[in-house]
Design brief:
By secondary structure, this protein is α+β, with helices and mostly antiparallel strands. Helices cover 40% and strands 24% of the residues. The protein is built from ten helices and ten strands. Strands 3-2-1-4-5-10-9-8-6-7 form a ten-stranded mixed β-sheet. β6 and β7 form a beta hairpin. The radius of gyration is 21 Å and the shape is elongated. The two termini are 33 Å apart. It comes from Methylomagnum ishizawai. This is Transposase IS4-like domain-containing protein. Pfam families: DDE_Tnp_1.
């Protein structure tokens, strides 16, 4: 299995394509028959013994250990990308320099946002790989925060910078329930400790920052005292954007994949992730 996976990763680095026909043609197999190459690759991608978490664990542990060196906070990002309306992929990545590397992911058929149960699955996978005593901060876009996610993060002791939508119920303790959008209305900066969110009253802190030239303010929930610097920590999430670009239009063209089963797409992403990780490591050691 390891040898087979290595052959496909090599083909992916050369071809940078999600097209299994094109990818199969690049495989160094001892056959000239294209149909045999394609069957070989299809069998690999549907093989349940090729478990993404098992394969990724040593690579993920190594990257997380590097990120935690000298007591540094591990910066994780969670985001979703869609392949048209056919498939949605939720991914957790770790920041490495100015970019991110994928750690764990989940694919689901359809284009809807993947809910907390899917988030919990990928987050707990990463949780199991963390170095003992590591400090962690998770950033996530406004489609993900929920009472359940806040509760999970609190239970793990993780820091967080979670962007909120404008329609989230908020109680600042001043006797009147409002929304995060109302709190951000016509303000350039605002910092609110001890705010309760959602109908269940999740306690957090809010920082609001609307910089000139930006169409919308950042409304950021955080685990620490709200300050401008803490709000700007959210910018660490942008490291996931060039990673998604590498998966898609600027690199492996994942959006062109015609795979129709989520488990097979997850294994194709595994191949791409290993190829991406190898390229990043090789590039980082080249003079």
């Amino acid at each position: 299995m390891v040898r087979k996976l290595a052959l496909v990763v090599g083909a992916m680095i050369e071809g940078r394509t999600p097209n299994t026909v094109e990818l199969a043609n690049l495989l160094p197999l001892s056959t000239d028959r294209q149909d045999m190459r394609e069957q070989w690759l299809r069998r690999l991608l549907k093989n349940p013994l090729l478990e993404t978490a098992v394969v990724m664990e040593p690579f993920a542990r190594a990257e997380l250990a590097k990120a935690a060196r000298n007591g540094q906070t591990i910066l994780l990002s969670m985001d979703q990308t869609d392949l048209g309306e056919r498939m949605a992929v939720l991914m957790v990545s770790v920041r490495v320099g100015d970019r991110a590397l994928p750690l764990a992911w989940l694919a689901e058929e359809g284009s809807a946002n993947i809910g907390f149960e899917g988030q919990r699955r990928v987050l707990e996978r990463v949780l199991a790989w963390l170095p003992l005593g590591a400090n962690v901060m998770l950033s996530a876009d406004r489609f993900y925060p929920s009472a359940a996610l806040f509760g999970w993060l609190g239970a793990q002791g993780w820091g967080y910078r979670l962007r909120l939508k404008r329609n989230v119920l908020a109680d600042t303790g001043e006797g009147e329930e409002t929304t995060t959008g109302d709190l951000a209305q016509d303000v350039a900066e605002r910092y609110l400790p001890g705010v309760r969110l959602f109908a269940c009253g999740v306690m957090t802190h809010l920082g609001i920052l609307h910089e000139p030239g930006h169409p919308e303010p950042w409304i950021i929930a955080m685990d620490c005292a709200p300050t401008r610097a803490a709000v700007l920590d959210y910018a660490a999430r942008w490291s996931i954007e060039p990673m998604f670009s590498d998966f898609k239009g600027r690199g492996f063209e994942l959006e062109d994949s015609q795979l129709e089963h989520a488990d097979r797409l997850e294994r194709l992403i595994l191949v791409m992730s290993l190829a991406m990780g190898w390229c990043v490591r090789w590039g980082g050691t080249t003079p």
